[in-house]
Amino acid sequence: MRKVLQYVKDYQREFFDWKLYGAILLFTVVCIALNYRFDFEDGVIDSYNGRPIKWLWMFLFHGGPFFIVCLILYAFGKKREWLTSKNYWIKFLIGFGLLALDRSFYGFDEWFKVLPKMEYHFVIRCVHWASSLILVVVPMLIMYPLLERDEKPNFYGLRWEKFDAKPYLILLGVAAVFLGIGSFLGEIQDFYPRFKGSGAALYRRENPDVSSYLLMVIYELCYGSNFISVELIFRGFLIFAFARTLGGYAVLPMIVTYAFLHFGKPLGETISSLFGGYLLGIISYYSRNIWGGIFIHLGVAWLMELFGWLQN
After folding, report:
1. What is the tens place of the pLDDT at every residue in 203-219?
2. How far apart, in whole angstroms, are the C-alpha atoms of residue 101 and residue 136?
């Protein structure tokens, strides 16, 4: 735990600027307020589900805030070389292109329609969660040697080196307390557990011999696998790939982009993602490892499922 606190102190000492942070916070607050006022993602972007143009929407939706925060850094004179850097723009297009593909790809929906309707709903939910391993993780690991030829190989933080789980267990324990308290809020009870909307009950009508507990394990494993890709993109790629042009300031645009990922979820979860993203980003930047983030993210996700199940 002391190591984590030292990471935070070191980062604050080197990169904190209250005017810069204030400008980024103002931009983030305005974006959150507008989204939850007009339901932009669910009401506008999701109306293009199943259409190729959704890829462009998702590219702009996630790449836009990252770019704007970079412009804020430029305006405050923190980092300016990125604007004319070929390295920056290649990685920007690839990274946000893959993220947009992951959030807009609809091929699986068509391929699995051969299944009976009672089974399709559950299977496609599981496939959607696990598909990020194919659409994001595999392509990034394949392209890593080409994009990072001059860097010491760490595969965007996925190398298992000197990983100590103890400080993350403590952080997860603290998070569990707040999650337990937050689970009494109505909006969280309405959203979790995600398993209740998985279609498992319909699946069992067609396959009554299949245990509901087995379906729950399958669903939760698929659900959890999604957070590996989330950490690889946000705490791995968006920090390590852009550190060459943005240095440690790469953590800041990542946080705002990460908050956009939570639009459509309960407001409290979106706000908490700012703090969680900031902490996990700092840990990733200094430890050169994202396994701590994966550990915490999986723990929080499954705790939300557990508390949601207990409350319901």
Report:
1. 888 888 888 889 999 99
2. 8
**184, amino acid identity:** F
CA distance 215 to 217: 5
Whether omega before 153 lies within 30 degrees of 0, making that bond cis, reads no
Output the DSSP codes for 211-255: -HHHHHHHHHHHHHHHHHHHHIIIIIIIIIITHHHHGGGGHHHHH
Would residue 303 count as lying in a domain?
no
The whole-chain average pLDDT of the chain stands at 88
| Residue 304 within a domain | no
247: Cβ contacts below 8 Å, ≥ 6 apart? 79
Residue linked to tokens 């507008």: 34
Asked whether residue 149 carries a pLDDT value surpassing 80, the answer given is no
Examine the pLDDT at 16 and tell me if it is beyond 70.
Answer: yes
Distances (CA, A) of 37 to 30, 40, 68, 256, 267: 10, 8, 21, 18, 11
**Structural domain tally of the chain?**
1
Residue 115 token pair: 């299944």
**120 within some domain:** yes
Asked if 285 and 237 count as a contact pair (C-beta separation under 8 A), the reply is no
For 95-116, what is each residue's pLDDT tens digit?
A: 999 999 999 998 888 888 888 8
Q: Comparing 183 with 222, which gets the higher pLDDT? A: 222
Query: What residue numbers bound the domain in which 151 lies?
Result: 2-161+232-289
- CA proximity to 303, closest of 171, 181, 179: 179
Asked if pLDDT for residue 163 goes beyond 80, the answer is no
Query: What pTM was computed for the model?
Result: 0.87
- Asked whether residue 170 is assigned to any structural domain, the reply reads no
